[in-house]
Specification:
The structure is a single chain. The mean pLDDT is 96. Helix content is 46%, strand content 17%. Helix 3 (72-89) links the parallel strand 4 and strand 5 (94-101). It has a 7-stranded mixed sheet with strand order 10-9-8-7-11-12-13, with helices on both faces. Strands 1, 2, 3, 4, 5 and 6 form a 6-stranded mixed sheet that branches. The protein has a domain at 26-167: Rossmann fold. By secondary structure, the chain is an alpha/beta fold. The chain contains 14 helices and 13 strands. Helix 6 (171-190) runs parallel beside helix 13, helix 12 (329-343) packs across helix 13 (349-373) and helix 13 (349-373) packs across helix 14. It binds nicotinamide-adenine-dinucleotide (NAD). Nicotinamide-adenine-dinucleotide binds next to helix 7 and strand 8. Nicotinamide-adenine-dinucleotide is lined by residues 136-139, 175, 203-209, 227-229, 264, 278-281, 301-302, 327, 330.
Amino acid sequence: MSVFDLDAVKNVLAGNENARQILMRSEKKTILDINIWLDSKTLIVADAYVVYHNTARGPAKGGIRIDANVTLEETTDLAERMTFKTALTGIPFGGGKSGIRFDSHKLDTYMKRHLIQEFVHMMRADLVSGVYIPAPDMGTTPKEMAVIYGDLHIPECVTGKPLGVGGLPGRKEATGRGVAYSAGAAASKCLKTEIKGLRCAVQGFGNVGSWTCYFLHQMGAKVTAVSDLAGGIFNKNGLDIPALMQHGEKTGGLAGFEGDRLTNEELLSLDCDILLPAAREDVLTDKTANAVKARMVVEAANGPTTKAADEILRNKDIIVIPDILANSGGVIASYIEWRSAKSGVLTSSEEVFDFIDTTIGKSFERILALSKDRKMTHKDAALTLATEEVVAAMGSRGWI
Ligand code: NAD
């Protein structure tokens, strides 16, 4: 779903037609046909899209997704969301995204390496000039970012690199750290209770989901349910998250871990305090949102709630903490990695986590104040603040 379908963005842009015209479109959309021969018999053909939505505030920043369902529309939506995420949190980047339409589960490390090398080959000019700075997303990992670095030898041209290859301590945990911090701050400000002891259900146990669980567990919350594509597990007393992470690392999934089984649909409608969709977009829809029993939804994934579901949750008085705040820890850490790469100054994971907490904390205070002042939802307040920032930057650059 495009953020431009949301009324808060439309309202800010209603008073500025020039800004609306620029922002409703993307600055650049590139369509690539990636063909690679793995051996003399095996050809891989994949469509790929690279979208720079808006670079008024800085270079296009956004992950590379490898997934069978990638489309140009999805890549554009995600690039737009990045424009607003970096603007809300004050990170000096613009919004970008890449999507390679291929089932990442059918690719081993060797095949992924070839695919990414071809992507680098085709996008070389933009990567070298720093116009676009990629990072991992669904289907890509620090390993693929190391391939990009290895081909270009420019430390700041890519973030999310592995430790020891210019990577940042705390980067792999960063998005989950920010999600858990957002949940803790929102519990305290909106539910008027500390997060310790609150029952949390997390959909998705990849990079974002697993590290979100880790930090929630560390903060004393009870993670009662988690799921992945194959389904989920439940324990009303709270799952043993460190053991589950070890199991996930060893087996590649949740299957075989002790606990009651539940489906992804059951997880979304579980009786809990905080629901954290951390898998993919559009999981809370007009069909699933009615059944949500949580008191608060923290959007750990990008765009997990449709516009219709937002309306349903608002009518049920369920608080929604928007993705552009909740999952901004990843891009905040990416900014530190980029800055460190440029300056050569090393940073510790403690400093990274502190910076994430402080940055999200400040943005959340601004959201709370505006939402109180104008009687808006948190999502509307976040999007209003972000849109105003982007419009101001376009003004400063003489674009409007
Ligand atoms: P990932 O590929 O590491 O993990 C995705 C997880 O979700 C896996 O456990 C997978 O099995 C599960 N999943 C996928 N489809 C599902 C479905 N239909 N139902 C239930 N589970 C499903 O991806 P990730 O990096 O953790 O990203 C997850 C989401 O967070 C995406 O929306 C991504 O754009 C967003 N995000 C990621 C980062 C980051 O730093 N990785 C930063 C910001 C936002």
